[in-house]
Design brief:
Order of helices and strands: HHHHHEHEEHEHEHEHEHEHEHHHHEE
Shape: globular
Number of strands: 11
Number of helices: 16
Structural class: alpha/beta
Strand order of the largest sheet: 1-2-6-5-4-3-7-8-9
Distance between the termini: 63 Å
Helix content: 40-55%
Length: 371
C-alpha cells in the first residue's frame, strides 16, 4: 500500500482495526510499526517486522479500514470533534495509566479531563428519591467546599447518572459523559438536551466508538472502564447486587482508584450492592462530601460569611405544577399534561426551569419529586 495517507486518518483506521487494542498497539510500536507504517508498508514487510501472519495486514482489509476512517475523519472535522490517540499529549492523564484504555478517544466540548479533582458518580437506572437526593447534596457540597478544579463524570444513563450530571450543571461544575456509541447521536434520546447543556457549560461528551460502530449491549459494559479510569474516586450511590455500577466499582478497584458507596437500608433492593461493597471492604462508606474529601485528602475552601438565601418566587403555573407533584408523587409528565391542561412543550420547559432552580428533581419513568 505505497501511498501517503494523512496521519489523522491512519490513527482512526488503526484504532478501529479488528485485533488492535492498547497492548497490540504498544507491541507494534515497539517494533517500529505505528499507524502510518501499518498502512504504508506492504503486508510481507509488516509480517517480517512483527512476526504476525501476513493475513493480518491484508491489503483489501486495510484499504476498507482507511476508507471508513476517511468518512469518520470528515465527520469529526465537520462537527468539531476531537480524536485523541493514546500517545497524544492531550490524552487524559488518568486514563493513560490504564492498560486497557481505548486506543482512540473521541470527544466534543471542553478539554477538562485533567481537572484537579475528578469524581465519577454511578448507580442504578431505577434511582429512588433517596439516591437522587444524596447525589444532589454530594455534588452541591463538593462544589461549594472544594477549592475549585472539580469535574463530575458519569454515563448519561437514566437514574443516578443523569442526576449527577444535572446536579453538576445546577452548581456550575463541568461534567462529562462517557457514551457507549458514536457522537452522531445521544442515547437515551431523552437526555439530548442535558448533553447539549453539558457542552455549553464547559463539560464534554466522549466515547471510544466511531459513528459507524453499531450499538450493542457490550458497549455499555466496556464504557464502564473509561468512567472508572478518568476519575480519582468512584462513588456508587445506589445499586442492586449486579449491574453496571457494580462492574464499574470492580474496575475502579483494579485501577487503584478510591471506591466509595452510599449505605442504605438492609431491605432496600437498590442499596444491596452498596451495602455489600462496604461490608466486603471493597468500598469506603460515604455519608456526605466530607467523607470523600477526607479520604482523598483534598483541600477545601476557607469558610466565608454565610450568605442569606432568598426564596424563589414561583409563577402561578409553576406553583400549580409543584402542588400537583407533591400531591401526586407517582404521576408522569403525561398525567400532568392531562390534569393541568398544559401543552407538553410548555410543561417540559417549565419543569426544566424548575429543575435548574432546585425546585424539583426528575426521576425515571417521566416522574418528578419536589426538593
Amino acid at each position: 500500500m505505497n501511498r501517503t495517507i494523512p496521519v489523522e486518518v491512519c490513527k482512526i483506521a488503526f484504532s478501529a482495526y479488528r485485533g488492535i487494542c492498547r497492548a497490540t498497539a504498544e507491541a507494534l510500536a515497539a517494533r517500529g510499526v505505528g499507524p502510518q507504517e501499518f498502512f504504508s508498508l506492504d503486508a510481507r514487510t509488516l509480517a517480517s517486522l512483527t512476526g504476525l501472519k501476513s493475513d493480518f495486514f491484508d491489503d483489501s482489509r486495510r484499504s476498507a479500514a482507511l476508507e471508513s476512517a476517511q468518512r469518520e475523519f470528515d465527520f469529526i472535522r465537520t462537527n468539531n470533534i476531537r480524536a485523541t490517540f493514546y500517545t497524544d499529549e492531550a490524552y487524559p492523564r488518568r486514563l493513560r495509566d490504564c492498560e486497557d484504555a481505548p486506543v482512540m478517544l473521541y470527544s466534543i466540548g471542553a478539554d477538562v479531563f485533567d481537572c484537579r479533582h475528578v469524581v465519577s458518580v454511578v448507580g442504578t437506572r431505577h434511582a429512588t428519591p433517596y439516591g437522587v437526593g444524596f447525589t444532589d447534596r454530594l455534588i452541591r457540597d463538593l462544589a461549594s467546599g472544594l477549592d475549585g478544579g472539580l469535574l463530575i463524570v458519569s454515563g448519561l444513563a437514566y437514574g443516578i447518572d443523569v442526576a449527577a450530571h444535572k446536579a453538576a450543571l445546577r452548581e456550575g461544575v463541568p461534567t462529562g459523559a462517557v457514551m457507549a456509541h458514536g457522537l452522531n447521536t445521544v442515547y437515551p434520546a431523552d437526555h439530548r438536551g442535558t448533553a447539549a447543556q453539558m457542552i455549553r457549560q464547559g463539560g464534554f461528551v466522549c466515547t471510544e466508538y466511531r459513528t459507524s460502530d453499531r450499538i450493542h449491549k457490550g458497549n455499555f459494559l466496556a464504557r464502564n472502564r473509561i468512567v472508572a479510569g478518568l476519575c480519582d474516586v468512584l462513588v456508587v450511590v445506589e445499586s442492586d447486587l449486579r449491574g453496571g455500577a457494580m462492574a464499574t466499582a470492580r474496575i475502579a478497584g483494579e485501577y487503584n482508584r478510591e471506591v466509595m458507596a452510599v449505605p442504605g437500608r438492609v431491605g432496600d433492593t437498590y442499596s444491596r450492592g452498596c451495602n455489600n461493597l462496604i461490608a466486603a471492604s471493597s468500598a469506603a462508606m460515604i455519608r456526605d462530601a466530607s467523607d470523600l474529601v477526607g479520604l482523598l485528602g483534598w483541600e477545601t475552601r476557607k469558610p466565608e460569611g454565610v450568605q442569606k438565601e432568598f426564596a424563589i418566587e414561583l409563577t402561578p403555573q409553576q406553583q400549580s405544577i409543584l402542588n400537583f407533584i407533591k400531591t401526586n408523587p407517582d404521576a408522569t409528565v403525561n398525567d400532568m399534561c392531562a390534569r393541568l391542561e398544559i401543552p407538553y412543550a410548555r410543561l417540559s420547559s417549565a419543569l426544566f426551569e424548575m429543575e435548574m432552580s432546585d425546585i424539583v428533581m426528575s426521576l425515571p419513568g417521566g416522574k418528578y419529586t419536589s426538593i
